Amino acid sequence: MTEIAVSLPTVRRPDLSEARLRRRYAAEKRFRLYGASAICLAVLMLGILLITIVGKGYSAILQTEIALDVVIDPAEAGIDPEGTRDRAVLANADYAKLIKSALYARFPDVTSRQEKRVLNDLVSSGATYELRDAVLENPALIGTTQRLWLTASDDIDMLSKGYTPRDVPETERRVSDKQIAWFDALADDGMVRKAFNTTFFTAGDSREPEQAGVLGAVVGTVLTMLVTLSMTLPLGIATAIYLEEFAPKNKWTDFIEVNINNLAAVPSIVFGLLGLAVFLGFFGLPRSAPLVGGMVLALIVLPTIIIAGRAAIKAVPPSIREAALGVGASPLQVVSHHVLPLAMPGILTGTIIGMAHALGETAPLLMIGMVAFIVDIPHGITDAATVLPVQVYIWADSPERAFVERTSAVIIVLLVVLMAMNAVAILLRRRFERRW
Hints:
Strand content: 5-15%
Shape: elongated
Number of helices: 18
Distance between the termini: 83 Å
Number of strands: 3
C-alpha cells in the first residue's frame, strides 16, 4: 500500500523579541519626552517668575524728582545768623520751612491751611535733608535762589510711574484731585523728572518708601554669611574627614551619622528657637546681630556640608590612597596632600548649596530679632542688622504701594547676590578640580 505524504504549510509565529524591543524603545522615547516636558515646564515657570519680579521691581531704580526754586534766606530759616559758617549751626536750620515757602510761591492760589498741608505732601520729608546737605557742601548757596531737584513723595512717585489710576473716584486712591492738578502743572513746566534712585542702593531702611534703601540689608547679609562660612567650612570639612577616613566603624559612629542626617531634615525654625534660648538667653549675645544670625544659620548649614563632604571624599578612587601609602606617606599626609584636594570640588558644591539655603532663610532669623527696624548701616558682626530675606518680609508687609516695587527690587538684589555666590563657587571648583 502506497503512503502519500502531505506537506502542511508552516505557520510563522511573530518574533516576540522584536516586539519587546519595539515596546522598550517606545517606552524610552516616552520617558525622554516626559523628562523634556518637565524641564520645559520648569524653565517656563522660572521665566514667568523672573519676568513678574523684574516687571514689578525694575521701576524702583528710578525716583521721581520735583524742581523748586528755593530761596535760601538766612533770616527766614535761621541759617548761620552770626555768619560763622559753623557746620553744627548750619545743620540745625529750618530747611523744611524753605521748601514749604518754595511750594507756596509756586502755587500762590493755595491759601488755606488744609490745602497747604496737602500741597506739602508733594515733596518727600527727606527733601529737607537733601537741602541741608547741599548747603553744608556749599555754604555759598546761603542768600541765593537755587533751582533744586528734590525727591517727590511716594504717592506722587507712584502717580508719575502710572501705578496710581486717575480714572477712579478720589476716595479710592491716595492722591487727591488737587495733587494731580498740581503735579500736572509742574510736569507741563518741565519741573518733574525721573532720576536714578541712588538712595535705594546707598541708604538703610526707612518708614518712607522713597527714602528706603537696601544697603543695610546687603551689608548685614554679607556679615552674616561670613560668620556662617567661617564656622561651617572648617568644622564641616574636619568632621567629614574624620568620619570617612579615621573614625572606627562601630555603633557610636553609626549613631553620629544617623543624627547628622536627621539634623539636615530638622525645620529651620527649630534652630531659631535654639538660638533664642542658648545664644541670646544663656550666653547673652547681642540681639539682631550678624554674629548670632551667622551662628544660627551655621547650625542649619553644617549637616549639609558634612554630608556633601563625606560623599566627595568617598568618591576619591582608593588607588590614590593606596599609591600614597605605598610610597611612605602617613595617613594624615594621604588625606591632606591627595584626598582633600581631589575632594575639594565636591565639598565646595555642598558648601554653596548650604550657603544658598542659608541665604534664603527667614524664620530662624525672625526668632532672634533680626526683623527689627534697622536704619543705620552695620559696621561689625555685633551691630544690629537685618538681612535681605527679612527685608523682603518687612517690606512685603507694608501697606504703601511704593513698597511693592521695592520688595520686588530687593528680591532682584537677592538673586544677584545668589548668582554671585554661585559664580565664586564655579571659579573655585575650576581652580581645584583635577581629573584622573
